Amino acid sequence: MARQARTVIPGQAMHILVRGNNCETLFFSDAERRIYLDWLREAAKQFGCSVHAFALMPNHVHLLLTPLNEDSLSKTMQSLGRRYAQYFNQTHHRSGTIWEGRYRSSLIDPDYFLRCQRYIELNPVRVGFESSANDSTWTSFGSHIGGKSESWLIDHPTFWRLGNTPFERQMIWARFVKEGAPHWEDQQITAALIRSKPWVSEQFAKRFFKDNPEEALIRTRGRPKKLVYIQ
Length: 231
Fold this sequence. Notes:
The protein has helices at residues 30-47, 72-91, 113-121, 123-126, 141-144, 157-160, 166-179, 183-194, 202-208, and strands at residues 14-19, 49-56, 60-67, 104-107. By secondary structure, the chain is of the alpha+beta class. InterPro entries: Transposase_17, Transposase_17_sf.
């Protein structure tokens, strides 16, 4: 069976999921997590991806990034995946793949971007690893509220529109994440990601998928409304 073509539009954000083979652990220490992030930064810079958010879980990784070119995403993920797998196998005296097949990817509507970023930064809370986003060490949440900073992260334009100053953006983001997301929204994001389908509005689909806009939509209960930024 032929592989399903990925939907990648240069300049549009992508939600990425990579998982350990057979749900096996990918990170046994903070040092390994640090190496993965450092190599993500290097690969993204080399191949033209802006990284906006991340969550490193024991056996899977969520990323939110924007590829600048059609092949930026594939080259970034291939370089990172191969480099980390080689390091992991050498470190733990093993061989073979450490990844569960191809990474999953979901094109994100700019109007839904902040909801997707919240989904990623709340991942440790949603799966029961932490009680709040503030307790999560290996996500990008700290960088977005003025705490632990990953200076190489690049904020998306929609994040910049949250406020006129860094402090305003940080406060608004902290409140938005603390509110949490409705269950149906989490379901939609998960369904789109697992199926490597876009998470977009009908308007976005009609604009970018003119030949077959229905192919870009997953029909479930509810659709997100455009966020109104309250300063």
